[in-house]
Amino acid sequence: MKIYFEIPGKPVAKGRPRATRRGNFVAMYTPKKTVAFENLVKTCFCEKYPLHEPISEMVHVEIKTIFPALKAANKSDRDLMESGLFLPHPKKPDLDNIVKSVCDALNDIAFVDDNLVQSLSASKWYGSRARTEITIATIGESNE
Length: 144
Prior knowledge:
Radius of gyration: 17 Å
Largest sheet: 5 strands, mixed
Strand content: 25-35%
Low-confidence stretches: none
CATH superfamily: Holliday junction resolvase RusA
CATH class: Alpha Beta
Shape: globular
Mean pLDDT: 91
Strand order of the largest sheet: 1-7-4-6-5
Order of helices and strands: EEEHEHEHEE
Helix content: 25-40%
């Protein structure tokens, strides 16, 4: 089984849990930006695969994050990106935190739990259109 879908917009890294004091208690919460991105991941997946049953076997996940071109990018770089090529993205957010937000969002939706992710490939790029491309394949099919 092979699944592919895209999340439009700028990729968002998993934010650190925040704490707030409520009287004598401390409440932990996830930042709003992270929650919004994870909900967008869920929505995009469910729109493309409305009848999907979560996978209960080991999977390979490929995540390709594409950020919008910098305003300061030179014309030759912009032309390359418009032609469909990508340029490396060496800045924040950290790639591992983006992967965490995507995998957490897909729990109980794409796969039963993200502990079923046996292998992973991820990359960060600049491109003409910001998006996150996700491919999930059961292990026997990941190289096909």
